[in-house]
Automatic annotation (TrEMBL):
Keyword Glycosyltransferase found: no
Protein keywords: Centromere, Chromosome, Coiled coil, Nucleus
Family of the protein in this entry: Belongs to the CENP-K/MCM22 family.
Name this protein carries in UniProt: Uncharacterized protein
GO cellular component: chromosome, centromeric region; nucleus
Amino acid sequence: MATSKVSRQEETLRALLDQINVQEALLNELRLSVTPVETEPCSDPVAYHRQLCCLTATYQSLTNSQPYLPIGDFVLPDLLAIRSTSQVIRETQVAKNDCELSLQDVKRRLEEEQADNEDAKLIQAEIKLRISSLEQEIKINNKKSPHDLERENFLELQRKKNRYDNETTDLMLAFNSFIEQHLAPMLAVEELGGPIVGQIIDIHDEILQGEFNSQGKAKKVKLQESKRQRRISQIWSTQPPNEEKYDEKCAAAAEMKSLIKELLNKMSDESINFPDAYIKLHRESAAARFLVRSKIAQFHPRDASRLRLIDFGNEIDD
């Protein structure tokens, strides 16, 4: 089938080339037998009219004549149709891809607009509720005396203060519990030369009773109680008077609580601007390093013995 199609194409090509040669020979004979046609318009009106008549007659004769095409198994129309069809298919595929991209973009923008519309509806509903509540409150307050309004405002402020105090107490209890149960053992391990806070989570008392080597690994040998207490005193100072059991974990917890309290008191001091609310550290402790790593506090840019809480409204100093 393919061989037959190629043969027909070759025959068609030869027929077209023969016809071209015949037409070129006739054209050459015609050029030799007639006077060449002027290609530029003649200035003489009569000659110019003859030129137009000649061109018109030639054009009409060529228009009315049928173009030469071989008959029978001539495959040129099929080839032209295939080429046109292939071009239409390619253009259609390109247009289809463009339409799909445009459709995806329209769908995405539609989803965004729908989400914005839903948000706007929710905001509108909340604003209407708030307006209605304020209008109702104004109507009620207009019926009350200034003394009653003042008393109600005072009671409301008192309730808020009590609620904030209770929440603050709960937060402090939770904060102290976190320090004592979770953070203090890790701080103690770091102070004793072990891994930094967070690298070891499950810490037993046996780990705190021993020592750590230069690689930060715990030794299996336990210290005597007297030597252990001397180590605690050297690192965290002496034992508080009301502490019955004062080990490394208690010492680390007490140091962290004291450091946080000192930082908060310094920050709340009205006589000091917040950027200058630094405290003086007696030593570079694991507690101070933990606060700095956690982005809770920062050292002074030129003095690592000074520390302050971070102002979360501004950027961290370099």
